[in-house]
Design goal:
The complex is a heterodimer.
Chain A lengths: L10 E7 L3 H12 L4 E4 L14 H6 L12 E4 L7 E2 L28 H10 L14 H16 L26 H12 L5 E2 L38 H6 L4 E4 L3 E7 L5 E7 L5 E11 L5 H8 L24 E8 L14 E6 L12 E6 L4 H7 L9 H8 L4 E8 L8 E9 L5 E6 L4 H20 L4 E4 L38 E3 L14 H20 L4
Parallel strand pairs in A: 1-2, 1-9, 2-6, 3-15, 9-17
Antiparallel strand pairs in A: 3-4, 5-11, 7-8, 8-9, 10-13, 10-16, 11-12, 12-13, 14-15
Chain B lengths: L4 H10 L6 H22 L13 H14 L13 H10 L6 H18 L11 H9 L5 H15 L11 H6 L13 H4 L7 H6 L3
Helix pairs in contact in B: 3-4, 4-7
The chains are: A alpha/beta, B mainly alpha.
Chain lengths: ~550, ~210
């Protein structure tokens, strides 16, 4: 069956805004359940043949990421500051194309643990934060994690980490072959008494569901996969949705607002086509999967007389509680060659600090993983320590690149009401819509935790026999690619935007599912959980639709 | 992008003949497609015979600054990699909207340098050590930061952007652009015995 083409006047069952990690899954689940689904994607549709090994284009010319000239953003640390226009990397950084950021992500794909869903109950309140339990448990999400692993395609070794949550089924593919960085992290971590384990990755380690296995070319982080081995929704969920004959994915369609009627129901969405002509798409229900920044912005942009503060926002929570996950980097040089430019970025992870330990003196949890960060240009620009940024000392570091690796620390971000996405009061985008404004200041515990993890990374590298180890200073966050928490799930309509089935508390036929649904940040690498939520939401939304409960 | 004998042969040469046949059989069509289209993009199409934007005097100073950032020596540096052609071409094309600002800041750099060194025609005419000493005072300026950024890109971006001549930058950092690799990837994973589950670790005598 080939992809559906809807006529302009058609009323579809569902319009899905965004075709990324969540939108792709939603499109497949709803169309396979028998519904007519139109997916509107603001960016273009690439194919595997469009992707190339061009670090300048993707990392320094933003070819795959959101464009600040047409889609500007502003940033400030606190509401007391004047927001400044962002000029280099976007504050809310994502890939606007079919497949969304699942096209250019690194593909780290571990599950959240039980504790991520009920940590507030275990630890108690944290003053000054909106730290809360999720309205669902790990047990409720587990079947959908398994579904992600088998339907989307994840490589890994079940039971390898003694800290992993229980699972109902092993991984469908073995882990990717270990790289030298993984061997060294494993060596150092085991010496320290820790428990490194093979990284679960959304990359095919063997041919899987008509896709080729990874060729180990090394261009994952920030790049599209020319082998289709990376389990992007572009290669997995989207074609399967289209194969139902009930789904159309319409690229270059930029949604500007969701419309509602006098009864307070969503009637469809207005969007601009590539020639900036405005259209209105009628739909029986709207599912917003536009990522943790743009979803909140769209709900706020859709304010009208009936919903003056934006849609689904009677709580005032839309846009608030923005979280990123913290990040810290350790660079290390070894005696022999690692050649970390080859193969997938991450092959070993250590999660011995996943749970919060009050004895550390601050809230938080996380882990470390082995990788080479970006490719040669970014490493050369950003890794050298002060005093070795140019001249002979710099050149010797460039020549040492084959012997280099990094350890990355990944940790928690606490939800704060003051950290948020909203609409810039002055700046407009190229379509005349208010630009995205971000306000963000890390909680001190978030920085303390990731510095703690960074120190463990340093220890692991010394224990592995590194010749040189140096830390990159941990700075306050100014944005990132993990965009979480801005339309959180919850049972109480006063303190959440959607219910446990991702239905907005305020509008019966408006659903929201993506990183914005998160109540807490997890310990990094949110896409696996975004997709598990999307499978679960899709399952429930289809049941509602069948029962006439939308 | 046909899987012709020629492309198969050239691909096998490019991969150093290290690919496992079972893997190749399973993935062959995708590998050929990926290697073919990527090869077209990577091939060095840059013309380094002339400058498009910079004057010869400007290019001399840009080359000299780039050569301070990544000096020549026992191994090639920014000069040999043609970084100046990258900086010239990128401002004449891809990033031409930055060209006026770049040339203005370069001109300001040259004017300041001339005031500091009366009797020396331009920065490039200073001795290498005098150049180093002068740049030490400027290393935290936006101009120098921008030159460092451009030098690294000119050294390591695809040769088609104008720099990285003969892939000298990639050779310097030990990077090989290839579309398929097989383990072992480096020294330390070559002898890896396999992941030992933790229960078994505990059973091993210490």
């Amino acid at each position: 069956m080939s992809a559906r083409k809807f006529k302009p006047d058609d009323t579809v069952d569902f319009v899905v805004v965004g075709s990324g990690a969540a939108g792709g899954v939603m499109a497949r689940e709803l169309s396979q359940a028998g519904f007519e689904v139109l997916v509107l994607e603001q960016g273009p549709r690439f194919t595997a043949a469009d992707f190339r090994h061009d670090e300048l284009a993707y990392w320094f010319n933003g070819e795959l990421t959101n464009k600040l000239d047409t889609n500007p953003q502003t940033f400030r640390k606190t509401a007391a500051d004047q927001a400044q226009r962002v000029t280099e990397f976007p504050a809310a950084w994502y890939a606007p194309n079919v497949g969304g950021s699942s096209v250019h992500f690194t593909a780290n794909f571990w599950r959240f643990h039980e504790v991520d869903f009920d940590e507030r109950s275990r630890l108690g309140a944290i003053p000054g934060t909106t730290f809360s339990d999720w309205p669902i448990t790990y047990e409720e999400l587990e079947p959908y994690y398994t579904k992600v692993e088998w339907e989307v395609g994840v490589s890994g070794l079940a039971g390898a980490s003694p800290f992993d949550p229980w699972r109902s089924k092993p991984y469908p593919m073995p882990p990717l072959p270990v790289k030298s960085s993984g061997v060294l992290l494993e060596r150092g971590a085991r010496k320290m008494g820790w428990h490194p384990y093979p990284a679960p990755m959304a990359i095919a380690s063997v041919p899987y569901k008509d896709r080729a296995a990874c060729a180990h070319c090394g261009f994952c982080i920030g790049f599209g996969c020319e082998m289709q081995a990376k389990s992007s929704t572009l290669y997995t969920m989207i074609p399967e949705a289209e194969a139902t004959g009930r789904c159309e994915v319409r690229p270059l369609s930029y949604v500007s607002r969701i419309e509602t009627n006098a009864a307070g129901r969503a009637t469809g969405v207005a969007y601009f086509d590539q020639d900036r002509r405005e259209h209105f798409q009628k739909a029986r229900a709207v599912v917003v999967c536009a990522n943790g920044a743009e979803t909140a912005r769209l709900l706020l942009l859709s304010a009208n007389a009936k919903f003056p503060d934006g849609l689904a926002n009677s709580s005032g929570y839309v846009g608030t509680n923005l979280m990123f996950n913290t990040y810290a980097q350790i660079n290390a040089l070894f005696e022999h060659e690692l050649n970390e430019f080859k193969s997938a970025q991450v092959t070993r992870v250590v999660h011995d600090w996943y749970d919060c330990d009050p004895q550390r003196g601050f809230y938080g949890g996380g882990g470390i993983d082995s990788r080479i960060g970006p490719m040669p240009i970014a490493w050369s620009l950003f890794a050298p320590p002060p005093g070795r940024t140019w001249g002979a000392g710099f050149k010797s570091l460039l020549e040492a690149l084959p012997r280099a690796m990094i350890v990355a620390g990944h940790g928690t971000s606490l939800p704060l009401a003051t950290n948020r996405i909203d609409l810039d009061p002055e700046l407009k985008d190229a379509w005349g819509l208010p630009a995205l404004r971000m306000t963000y200041k890390d909680h001190p515990d978030d920085l303390a935790m990731v510095r703690y993890l960074q120190d463990r990374g340093v220890e692991s590298m010394h224990a592995a026999g590194a010749l040189e180890v140096w830390k990159e200073p941990v700075a306050e966050s100014t944005g990132g690619p993990h965009l979480l928490g801005t339309a959180r799930m919850g049972n109480d309509p006063r303190t959440s935007v959607v219910d446990k089935y991702h239905r907005s508390h305020d509008i019966r036929n408006l659903f929201v599912c993506d990183g914005s649904s998160f109540v807490t940040s997890g310990r990094g690498q949110p896409t696996m959980t975004i997709q598990a939520l999307a499978f679960r939401a899709g399952d429930h939304i289809a049941q509602f639709a069948r029962r006439g409960e939308i | 992008m046909d899987a012709s004998g020629t492309s198969r042969r050239s691909f096998l040469q490019a991969s150093g003949g290290t690919l496992g046949m079972a893997w190749l059989a399973a993935s062959w069509p995708q590998v050929v497609a990926a290697a073919e289209h990527a090869h077209q993009r990577v091939s060095d199409t840059a013309d380094r015979s002339k400058l498009r934007l910079l004057t010869p005097a400007q290019a001399r100073d840009v080359d000299a600054i780039a050569s301070q950032i990544v000096p020549s020596g026992a191994t090639p540096g920014a000069h040999e990699a043609g970084v100046v052609y990258f900086i010239d071409q990128v401002h004449a094309g891809l990033w031409q909207e930055n060209a006026a600002e770049f040339v203005a800041s370069l001109t300001e750099f040259q004017a300041k340098c001339a005031r500091h060194h009366p009797g020396v025609a331009q920065f490039a005419d200073l001795s290498f050590d005098d150049q180093t000493a002068y740049l030490k005072h400027l290393e935290h300026t936006p101009f120098f930061g921008g030159m460092r950024f451009l030098t690294v890109l000119g050294l390591l971006a695809l040769p088609s952007y104008g720099g990285n001549a003969d892939k000298l930058g990639w050779k310097l950092v030990g990077f090989v652009d290839q579309h398929a690799w097989q383990p072992p990837f480096g020294h330390y994973d070559a002898g890896y015995a396999g992941f030992v589950p933790y229960a078994k670790v505990a059973e091993q005598p210490s």
